[in-house]
Specification:
Elements lengths: L6 E6 L20 E2 L3 E2 L2 H9 L4 E5 L5 H7 L13 E4 L15 H6 L2 H5 L5 E6 L2 E3 L3 H11 L3 E7 L2 H4 L3 E5 L5 E6 L8 E10 H12 L8 H11 L4 E5 L4 E3 L3 H10 L27 E2 L4 E3 L2 E2 L4 E2 L2 E3 L2 E2 L4 E2 L4 E3 L2 E2 L4 E2 L4 E3 L1 E3 L4 E2 L4 E2 L6 E3 L4 E2 L4 E2 L4 E2 L4 E2 L1
Parallel strand pairs: 1-4, 1-6, 4-5, 8-12, 14-17, 15-18, 16-19, 17-20, 18-21, 19-22, 20-23, 21-24, 22-25, 23-26, 24-27, 25-28, 26-29, 27-30, 28-31, 29-32
Antiparallel strand pairs: 2-3, 6-11, 7-13, 8-11, 9-10
């Protein structure tokens, strides 16, 4: 029986995130931690809930186990209703054939049957690896008012930044007449955010045609969007002026965390209208011991702070011992920093142990320590070092 929906969300969450190096060796980019208690994927999932979209297909591929377990039935994001829900959709065999997702468009193509179950008027294609708070319903209303076949969310960037993005050139009515991929001399600064709304019955046929094209790279930006433009389809740019960050590099992830500590941060995690939901691990409140010092920092549940913390984002369950000084750093879930350590400008992944007397970084470049590493007593981790998971540092 078809459960009719106006719109279904398809969330692309299979990215390897190779430019995050050690942080994505054992997890997909959307599963990377951010902001003290969140993972990156919490943001598009929460945006769907806040926008009234109750049916979300989550397309996983690279290192999917953590994401699959984390999302579960979607209950933490209020996406476990009888009439909708969050559905994890890895690649699978069909008859005697099967492929990994060959590109963003192919990921949707391989799940046509899933979408057809809901007979939607529209689909919205989302990226699972951006920090963004956005009301997708406003974009949908704009899409409908324009009578668009496709609406692409864009962000105005600087002229220099525009050279790194897919750029949408539009007329006075915001109708797209040209798409340029990373142009050397941009004609506009309207950068694609990788968020698309399509009329389902129309894009369905484009996906089928593209899936059967051996010359295609099966990508929305490289193949589907240019083809729709060539065919004269009604395509519009939707200008977004809220918070959006592509946290695809070590520096950008560190900076996005540090932005939360600004006096007036651009993203408001306390906004009741755009609340960010996440898994609740039912930890006790954080504890700051007598003699400890905490300045301009975020502390999540379950932290125990006995040393000095300044300008840091400290995730759930982190312990920082007496005499340790941690500055300008992001310390992720369940990491332990023993006594008399010095840490400056670091991204330290989950379940790391920093033994007594260690020195990590010097505050010039971001130093990264991957999942489940152990720094033995008095070890030194050089400024800007990249330490991969499960390493023992002497």
């Amino acid at each position: 029986m078809i459960n009719k929906k106006e719109i279904v969300a398809m969330l692309l969450a299979g990215g390897q995130g190779s430019r995050l190096f050690a942080l994505t060796q054992k997890k997909a980019k959307p599963a990377v931690s951010y902001g003290g208690k969140y993972k990156i994927i919490d943001f598009p999932l929460s945006n769907c809930t806040n926008s009234g979209i109750d049916t979300v297909g989550v397309l996983t591929q690279y290192e999917p186990l953590e994401l699959n377990a984390y999302i579960g039935t979607g209950g933490f994001w209020d996406l476990d209703s009888l009439n909708g829900g969050a559905y994890v959709l890895p690649p699978y065999m069909k008859g005697e054939t099967g492929n990994w997702y060959r590109g963003t468009a192919d990921a949707i193509y391989q799940n046509i049957n899933f979408i057809d179950n809901f007979d939607p008027d529209h689909i919205i294609v989302l990226s699972g690896d951006q920090i963004c708070t956005m009301d997708y319903d406003k974009m949908l209303q704009y899409h409908k008012e324009k009578g668009a076949d496709c609406t692409i969310s864009v962000l105005n960037v600087t002229y220099e930044e525009a050279k790194r993005f897919g750029i949408m050139n539009t007329d006075e009515d915001e109708r797209i007449y040209e798409f340029e991929e990373k142009p050397a001399e941009p004609k506009s600064t309207k950068a694609s955010m990788g968020i698309y709304i399509f009329k389902w019955k129309l894009i369905r046929q484009y996906l089928i045609d593209d899936g059967n094209d051996p010359e295609s790279e099966h990508d929305f930006g490289k193949n589907i969007i240019p083809r729709m433009l060539e065919d004269g389809r009604k395509m519009y740019a939707y200008s977004f002026d809220g918070y959006w960050r592509d946290v695809g590099t070590i520096d950008s992830l560190w900076e996005a965390n540090m932005e939360l500590l600004d006096e007036n941060p651009q993203i408001d995690l306390n906004d009741d209208k755009m609340r960010i939901y996440t898994r609740n691990f039912s930890l006790p409140p954080h504890y700051i011991a007598p003699g400890a010092s905490v300045k301009n920092s975020i502390l999540a549940d379950g932290c125990v702070i006995e040393g000095e913390v300044e300008n840091c984002v400290i995730h759930s369950g982190v312990k920082i011992g007496k005499g340790s000084v941690v500055k300008n750093s992001v310390i992720m879930k369940d990491t332990v920093v023993r006594t008399d350590c010095q840490i400056d400008k670091a991204l330290i992944d989950e379940e790391v142990v920093i033994e007594q007397g260690c020195k990590v970084g010097e505050g010039n470049n971001v130093t990264v320590i991957g999942y489940h590493c152990v720094a033995l007593e008095n070890a030194t981790v050089e400024d800007g070092a990249m330490i991969y998971p499960d390493t023992i540092l002497h």
